[in-house]
Amino acid sequence: MRFHITHTTRYAYAAAASESFMEARLCPPTTSAQTVIHRSLTIDPACRVTHYTDYFGNTVEQFALIHRHNHLTLASTVEVQTHPVAVPQEAYDISISEARQIYRSQPLRHYDFLHASRGIQMGKLVYDAANRLFRPGGHLGESIHALMHWVKDHFTYAPGATQVGTTVEEALEGGRGVCQDFAQAMIAILRCAEIPARYVCGYIETESQRQAAERGERHLIGAAESHAWVEVALPGGTWYALDPTNDIAAGERHVVVAAGRDYLDTAPSKGVFKGAGRTTLTASVHMRRVEPAAVRA
Asked: Does residue 75 share a domain with residue 43?
Protein backbone atom coordinates (compact mmCIF):
# COMPACT_ATOMS: atom_id res chain seq x y z
CA MET A 1 0.00 0.00 0.00
CA ARG A 2 1.17 3.52 -0.76
CA PHE A 3 0.19 6.57 1.29
CA HIS A 4 0.53 10.33 1.12
CA ILE A 5 0.61 11.77 4.66
CA THR A 6 0.64 15.35 5.90
CA HIS A 7 1.21 16.03 9.59
CA THR A 8 0.72 19.68 10.60
CA THR A 9 1.59 21.04 14.04
CA ARG A 10 0.93 24.65 15.01
CA TYR A 11 2.03 26.53 18.11
CA ALA A 12 0.21 29.84 18.68
CA TYR A 13 1.63 32.18 21.35
CA ALA A 14 -0.52 34.47 23.47
CA ALA A 15 2.27 37.05 23.19
CA ALA A 16 5.13 37.08 20.70
CA ALA A 17 7.98 34.73 21.53
CA SER A 18 11.48 36.10 21.23
CA GLU A 19 13.17 32.68 20.80
CA SER A 20 12.14 29.07 20.23
CA PHE A 21 14.28 25.93 20.32
CA MET A 22 12.61 22.81 18.97
CA GLU A 23 13.18 19.26 17.86
CA ALA A 24 10.86 17.04 15.85
CA ARG A 25 10.58 13.30 15.29
CA LEU A 26 8.43 13.36 12.17
CA CYS A 27 10.60 11.55 9.62
CA PRO A 28 9.54 7.92 9.02
CA PRO A 29 12.39 5.41 8.53
CA THR A 30 12.76 2.99 5.65
CA THR A 31 12.52 -0.54 7.07
CA SER A 32 11.52 -4.04 5.96
CA ALA A 33 7.90 -2.98 6.54
CA GLN A 34 7.95 0.36 4.70
CA THR A 35 9.86 2.36 2.09
CA VAL A 36 9.95 6.15 2.21
CA ILE A 37 9.59 7.51 -1.33
CA HIS A 38 9.60 11.24 -0.58
CA ARG A 39 9.74 13.35 2.58
CA SER A 40 9.81 17.12 3.23
CA LEU A 41 9.49 19.40 6.26
CA THR A 42 8.28 22.99 5.98
CA ILE A 43 8.66 25.39 8.91
CA ASP A 44 6.95 28.78 9.22
CA PRO A 45 8.68 31.10 10.03
CA ALA A 46 11.43 29.62 7.86
CA CYS A 47 14.69 28.63 9.55
CA ARG A 48 17.70 26.35 9.18
CA VAL A 49 17.19 22.71 10.19
CA THR A 50 19.88 20.26 11.31
CA HIS A 51 19.53 16.49 11.72
CA TYR A 52 20.85 13.75 13.96
CA THR A 53 19.98 10.15 14.79
CA ASP A 54 19.02 9.56 18.42
CA TYR A 55 19.90 6.61 20.67
CA PHE A 56 16.91 4.59 19.43
CA GLY A 57 17.65 5.15 15.74
CA ASN A 58 15.03 7.85 15.15
CA THR A 59 15.75 10.79 12.83
CA VAL A 60 15.55 14.05 14.81
CA GLU A 61 15.22 17.44 13.11
CA GLN A 62 16.20 20.38 15.31
CA PHE A 63 16.04 24.11 14.74
CA ALA A 64 16.02 27.47 16.48
CA LEU A 65 14.13 30.71 15.87
CA ILE A 66 16.01 33.62 17.39
CA HIS A 67 13.70 36.44 16.35
CA ARG A 68 10.22 37.46 17.47
CA HIS A 69 7.35 35.33 16.17
CA ASN A 70 3.67 34.89 17.04
CA HIS A 71 3.31 31.34 15.83
CA LEU A 72 5.31 28.31 14.74
CA THR A 73 4.01 25.80 12.18
CA LEU A 74 5.58 22.48 11.19
CA ALA A 75 4.25 20.70 8.11
CA SER A 76 5.72 17.25 7.48
CA THR A 77 4.81 15.60 4.19
CA VAL A 78 5.74 12.04 3.31
CA GLU A 79 4.92 9.46 0.68
CA VAL A 80 5.55 5.90 1.84
CA GLN A 81 5.03 2.38 0.55
CA THR A 82 4.17 -0.27 3.13
CA HIS A 83 4.91 -3.98 2.79
CA PRO A 84 3.57 -7.15 4.43
CA VAL A 85 5.91 -8.67 7.02
CA ALA A 86 5.78 -12.36 7.97
CA VAL A 87 6.08 -13.33 11.62
CA PRO A 88 8.38 -16.35 12.21
CA GLN A 89 6.04 -19.04 13.50
CA GLU A 90 8.77 -20.85 15.43
CA ALA A 91 9.39 -17.77 17.59
CA TYR A 92 5.67 -17.15 18.01
CA ASP A 93 4.91 -20.71 19.17
CA ILE A 94 7.53 -21.28 21.87
CA SER A 95 6.61 -21.34 25.55
CA ILE A 96 6.96 -18.31 27.79
CA SER A 97 9.56 -20.08 29.93
CA GLU A 98 11.67 -20.87 26.83
CA ALA A 99 11.35 -17.29 25.64
CA ARG A 100 12.47 -15.96 29.01
CA GLN A 101 15.55 -18.18 28.93
CA ILE A 102 16.49 -16.73 25.55
CA TYR A 103 15.97 -13.14 26.74
CA ARG A 104 17.99 -13.81 29.90
CA SER A 105 20.87 -15.23 27.85
CA GLN A 106 21.20 -11.84 26.10
CA PRO A 107 20.74 -9.38 28.99
CA LEU A 108 22.01 -6.29 27.14
CA ARG A 109 20.29 -6.82 23.79
CA HIS A 110 16.90 -5.48 24.90
CA TYR A 111 17.82 -3.94 28.25
CA ASP A 112 16.05 -0.62 27.61
CA PHE A 113 12.82 -2.42 26.68
CA LEU A 114 12.70 -4.75 29.69
CA HIS A 115 12.69 -2.20 32.49
CA ALA A 116 10.66 0.74 33.75
CA SER A 117 11.25 4.06 31.99
CA ARG A 118 10.28 7.69 32.60
CA GLY A 119 6.84 7.23 31.06
CA ILE A 120 6.20 3.58 31.97
CA GLN A 121 6.33 2.54 35.59
CA MET A 122 5.17 -0.78 37.01
CA GLY A 123 2.80 -0.97 39.98
CA LYS A 124 0.53 -3.54 41.61
CA LEU A 125 -2.09 -3.55 38.83
CA VAL A 126 0.63 -4.17 36.25
CA TYR A 127 2.19 -7.04 38.22
CA ASP A 128 -1.20 -8.64 38.86
CA ALA A 129 -2.03 -8.59 35.15
CA ALA A 130 1.39 -9.97 34.16
CA ASN A 131 1.15 -12.86 36.63
CA ARG A 132 -2.38 -13.69 35.50
CA LEU A 133 -1.78 -13.53 31.75
CA PHE A 134 1.74 -14.95 31.41
CA ARG A 135 2.09 -18.44 32.86
CA PRO A 136 5.47 -20.15 32.30
CA GLY A 137 3.92 -23.04 30.39
CA GLY A 138 1.78 -20.86 28.14
CA HIS A 139 2.58 -20.15 24.50
CA LEU A 140 4.26 -16.80 23.88
CA GLY A 141 2.17 -15.75 20.88
CA GLU A 142 -1.14 -16.76 22.41
CA SER A 143 -0.33 -14.97 25.67
CA ILE A 144 0.70 -11.76 23.87
CA HIS A 145 -2.58 -11.73 21.96
CA ALA A 146 -4.53 -12.51 25.14
CA LEU A 147 -2.91 -9.45 26.72
CA MET A 148 -3.82 -7.28 23.74
CA HIS A 149 -7.46 -8.43 23.98
CA TRP A 150 -7.41 -7.74 27.75
CA VAL A 151 -6.11 -4.20 27.24
CA LYS A 152 -8.76 -3.52 24.61
CA ASP A 153 -11.50 -4.83 26.92
CA HIS A 154 -10.14 -2.97 29.96
CA PHE A 155 -10.00 0.49 28.37
CA THR A 156 -12.66 2.73 26.88
CA TYR A 157 -11.27 5.03 24.20
CA ALA A 158 -11.95 8.49 25.66
CA PRO A 159 -9.97 11.51 24.40
CA GLY A 160 -9.35 13.97 27.22
CA ALA A 161 -9.67 11.39 29.99
CA THR A 162 -5.89 11.30 30.46
CA GLN A 163 -2.92 13.61 29.96
CA VAL A 164 0.63 13.05 28.69
CA GLY A 165 1.81 12.65 32.30
CA THR A 166 -0.90 10.17 33.35
CA THR A 167 0.81 7.06 34.77
CA VAL A 168 0.06 3.52 33.67
CA GLU A 169 -1.43 2.73 37.08
CA GLU A 170 -3.71 5.78 36.93
CA ALA A 171 -4.84 4.86 33.43
CA LEU A 172 -5.53 1.25 34.47
CA GLU A 173 -7.48 2.39 37.51
CA GLY A 174 -9.60 4.76 35.44
CA GLY A 175 -10.09 2.36 32.55
CA ARG A 176 -10.29 5.26 30.08
CA GLY A 177 -7.70 6.79 27.78
CA VAL A 178 -6.27 7.15 24.30
CA CYS A 179 -3.85 5.12 22.19
CA GLN A 180 -0.89 6.25 24.32
CA ASP A 181 -2.52 4.70 27.40
CA PHE A 182 -3.46 1.48 25.61
CA ALA A 183 0.10 1.07 24.33
CA GLN A 184 1.93 2.00 27.53
CA ALA A 185 -0.26 -0.27 29.67
CA MET A 186 0.43 -3.21 27.36
CA ILE A 187 4.17 -2.47 27.33
CA ALA A 188 4.33 -2.23 31.13
CA ILE A 189 2.68 -5.63 31.52
CA LEU A 190 4.94 -7.22 28.90
CA ARG A 191 8.07 -5.88 30.58
CA CYS A 192 6.83 -7.04 33.95
CA ALA A 193 6.43 -10.51 32.37
CA GLU A 194 10.11 -10.31 31.20
CA ILE A 195 9.17 -9.82 27.55
CA PRO A 196 10.89 -6.89 25.77
CA ALA A 197 8.50 -4.33 24.28
CA ARG A 198 8.84 -0.85 22.83
CA TYR A 199 6.53 2.08 22.12
CA VAL A 200 5.88 3.04 18.49
CA CYS A 201 4.50 6.35 17.26
CA GLY A 202 3.20 6.76 13.72
CA TYR A 203 0.08 6.87 11.58
CA ILE A 204 -2.82 4.57 10.77
CA GLU A 205 -5.17 4.61 7.82
CA THR A 206 -8.76 4.68 9.09
CA GLU A 207 -12.03 4.19 7.31
CA SER A 208 -12.88 7.89 7.50
CA GLN A 209 -9.60 8.83 5.82
CA ARG A 210 -9.99 6.23 3.12
CA GLN A 211 -13.42 7.67 2.27
CA ALA A 212 -15.35 4.63 1.17
CA ALA A 213 -12.47 2.36 0.13
CA GLU A 214 -13.12 -1.23 1.19
CA ARG A 215 -16.47 -0.42 2.77
CA GLY A 216 -17.37 -3.02 5.35
CA GLU A 217 -14.07 -3.07 7.24
CA ARG A 218 -14.38 -1.76 10.74
CA HIS A 219 -13.35 1.75 11.72
CA LEU A 220 -9.83 2.03 13.14
CA ILE A 221 -9.07 4.56 15.85
CA GLY A 222 -6.18 6.99 15.87
CA ALA A 223 -5.70 8.95 12.66
CA ALA A 224 -6.82 12.48 13.59
CA GLU A 225 -3.40 12.88 15.21
CA SER A 226 -0.42 10.58 15.68
CA HIS A 227 -1.23 6.99 16.59
CA ALA A 228 0.63 4.68 19.00
CA TRP A 229 1.08 0.94 19.21
CA VAL A 230 3.45 -1.73 20.54
CA GLU A 231 6.29 -3.82 19.17
CA VAL A 232 7.28 -7.02 20.99
CA ALA A 233 10.76 -8.48 20.55
CA LEU A 234 10.29 -12.13 19.63
CA PRO A 235 13.18 -14.56 20.20
CA GLY A 236 15.36 -14.44 17.11
CA GLY A 237 15.21 -10.68 16.63
CA THR A 238 11.84 -9.97 14.96
CA TRP A 239 9.83 -7.03 16.27
CA TYR A 240 6.15 -8.06 16.24
CA ALA A 241 3.80 -5.06 15.95
CA LEU A 242 0.43 -5.04 17.74
CA ASP A 243 -2.18 -2.29 18.00
CA PRO A 244 -4.08 -2.69 21.30
CA THR A 245 -6.31 0.33 20.65
CA ASN A 246 -7.85 -1.52 17.72
CA ASP A 247 -7.09 -5.07 18.96
CA ILE A 248 -5.26 -6.08 15.77
CA ALA A 249 -1.78 -6.93 14.56
CA ALA A 250 -0.30 -3.78 13.02
CA GLY A 251 0.14 -4.18 9.28
CA GLU A 252 0.25 -2.37 5.98
CA ARG A 253 -2.16 0.33 7.16
CA HIS A 254 0.30 1.41 9.88
CA VAL A 255 3.26 3.71 9.15
CA VAL A 256 6.05 3.89 11.74
CA VAL A 257 7.65 7.25 12.49
CA ALA A 258 9.61 6.69 15.73
CA ALA A 259 10.16 4.06 18.40
CA GLY A 260 11.47 4.19 21.96
CA ARG A 261 10.86 3.17 25.55
CA ASP A 262 7.69 5.25 25.89
CA TYR A 263 5.89 8.30 24.55
CA LEU A 264 8.55 10.68 25.87
CA ASP A 265 11.15 9.12 23.53
CA THR A 266 8.93 9.48 20.47
CA ALA A 267 7.01 12.75 20.90
CA PRO A 268 6.46 14.26 17.42
CA SER A 269 7.70 17.67 18.54
CA LYS A 270 8.94 19.30 21.71
CA GLY A 271 10.99 22.27 22.80
CA VAL A 272 11.07 25.53 24.70
CA PHE A 273 10.34 29.15 23.91
CA LYS A 274 11.11 32.49 25.56
CA GLY A 275 8.17 34.79 25.96
CA ALA A 276 5.15 35.73 28.05
CA GLY A 277 1.79 34.02 28.11
CA ARG A 278 0.50 30.59 27.19
CA THR A 279 0.96 28.43 24.09
CA THR A 280 -1.86 26.75 22.19
CA LEU A 281 -0.90 23.58 20.36
CA THR A 282 -2.98 22.08 17.56
CA ALA A 283 -2.05 19.07 15.43
CA SER A 284 -3.69 17.25 12.56
CA VAL A 285 -2.86 14.33 10.31
CA HIS A 286 -4.23 13.69 6.84
CA MET A 287 -3.45 10.24 5.45
CA ARG A 288 -4.55 9.36 1.92
CA ARG A 289 -4.01 6.12 0.06
CA VAL A 290 -2.41 6.63 -3.35
CA GLU A 291 -3.99 4.17 -5.75
CA PRO A 292 -1.83 2.43 -8.40
CA ALA A 293 -3.40 4.47 -11.23
CA ALA A 294 -2.47 7.70 -9.45
CA VAL A 295 1.08 6.44 -8.93
CA ARG A 296 1.53 5.67 -12.65
CA ALA A 297 0.18 9.09 -13.58
From this structure: yes
